[in-house]
Amino acid sequence: MRWSNVLAQQVRYMLALGLGFTANVALADIAYITCQNGEELSRIDLAAMRETARWPLPGKPAGVATGTDNDLFTVSAGSKVVRRLSMETGETLSQITLEGGPIGIAFDPRRERLFVSNWYNKRLWVLDSVTLRVEAELPTGLAPAGIAISNDGRILASADKDDNQVSVFDAETLQPLRQVPVGIRPFGLRFAPDGRLFVGNVGSNDVSVLDASTGNVLATIPVGERPYGIAFAKDRAFVSNQYANSLSVISLETLEPEALVEVGEYPEGIDATENEELLVIANWFDNTVSIVDPNTLSVVETLETCDGPRAFGRFLGGGRQ
Amino acid sequence: MNRRRFLATTAAALVPTITRAHGPTRQKVTLTTEVAAPPEEVWAAIGNFDDMSWHPAVFSTQGNGGNEIDATRLLTLGQEGGPTIAEILYKYSAEKMSYSYRITEVAVEVLPVTNYSSHLTVKPRDGGGSIVEWRGAFYRGYPNNDPPAELNDEAAIAAITGVYQAGLDALVERFGAAS
Fold this sequence. Notes:
The structure holds two protein chains of two kinds.
Chain A: H1 3-16, E1 30-35, E2 40-45, E3 50-56, E4 61-66, E5 71-76, E6 81-86, E7 92-97, E8 102-108, E9 113-118, E10 123-128, E11 134-139, E12 144-149, E13 155-160, E14 165-170, E15 176-181, E16 186-191, E17 197-201, E18 206-211, E19 216-222, E20 227-233, E21 236-241, E22 246-251, E23 257-262, E24 267-272, E25 279-283, E26 288-293, E27 298-304, E28 312-314, E29 316-317
Parallel strand pairs in A: 4-28
Antiparallel strand pairs in A: 1-2, 1-29, 2-3, 4-5, 5-6, 6-7, 8-9, 9-10, 10-11, 12-13, 13-14, 14-15, 16-17, 17-18, 18-19, 20-21, 21-22, 22-23, 24-25, 25-26, 26-27
Chain B: E1 5-11, E2 27-35, H1 39-46, E3 58-64, E4 72-77, E5 84-93, E6 98-105, E7 113-124, E8 130-140, H2 153-175
Antiparallel strand pairs in B: 1-2, 2-8, 3-4, 4-5, 5-6, 6-7, 7-8
């Protein structure tokens, strides 16, 4: 049995005991920013508040997912290559070329699976997260983009952009459960800590909030122009608005818009640290990341990164301390 | 010797290839050049929003509002009575030696782009001299699917690249190549 399997077993055990999922893993807060234009991966240390490495990453990388055990997963949309990289050195540990249109990516630590959306063929690929071999394919609607896994590990969802819907699957059995109509052209999506699914609709400039287990749409919340990514911290949802150069802040309690935070130009990928004390946003046009305090709703730092940062997915984590 | 470096002149499409049924995607062009003069000297020449005289394609600049946010300028290209580009300033930092502007009005026959925004920045160069970076983001001139060749993504990228190149070449000529 691989080490990571042993760890996964421990995690399952801890979950069964109701213990925190990450309680046994000491994580430094590191951001891994995929830069599509510059074809680089930027490593930003949030304790030091500086970029600590920049590694070459060919093929127009955009999609990203942090794994466990030093693994980072990336999708190069241009060359159609999915890679497993070392978080410490940036070197490629394994890779696969996927014929079709790979874009979004999500990692399931409980089952060591990786999901990659196939924009052109109405599918999700299911990969072994170590070898990256294709294990299965799941049917979606037209143009699946973002993928998310619920925090309890039970539900998998894809945003099917050109069908204005979300496809929902059982993450364990991989059985399709339902397809839920949302706003116009959903692209990014993520599960809130309480299990509700937030979906950003770039065509209707709003966020659909779903109960993914029933398919009920609980709310539709107006945000800024072209919502791209969603992250959660301090009982708030933060949505990056590509055209508005801002984050929309939504109360998880009332599901009402609370505030706007000005960030850099053309903000895209967004993620929150484990302790929910910082948000990191990749600004595609500015070649910077904005670091935002989710308590005060202010930008605490703006750091340079590589050219054309997208960071589409979960990009914070790892770098074992 | 050509010291201009193409950092990237590539499509920004997140999707794997051209967007087909999904409409245009935002493009991004970044060009830099290195010159011998110090940043202060270069910024003094190019850091005023109401003075584009450093660019060889610009015949005249009619500015309104100096370097204040929301200042505007009207560039006349080539010669008196030539085609014009109207622009607005939305970010300005003398300290960072950087300004950002948008095009508010231009005919696609003049510049085949829409929704154009740009940053112009001067930075110190390791070993002396300056780095000038000119960066733009825009959509192609044709908003729908199946653009004609003169209004497609490639045409937009080529046009902006040409404008930046001409401007940066003029700066190398004026301030000398960095060594």
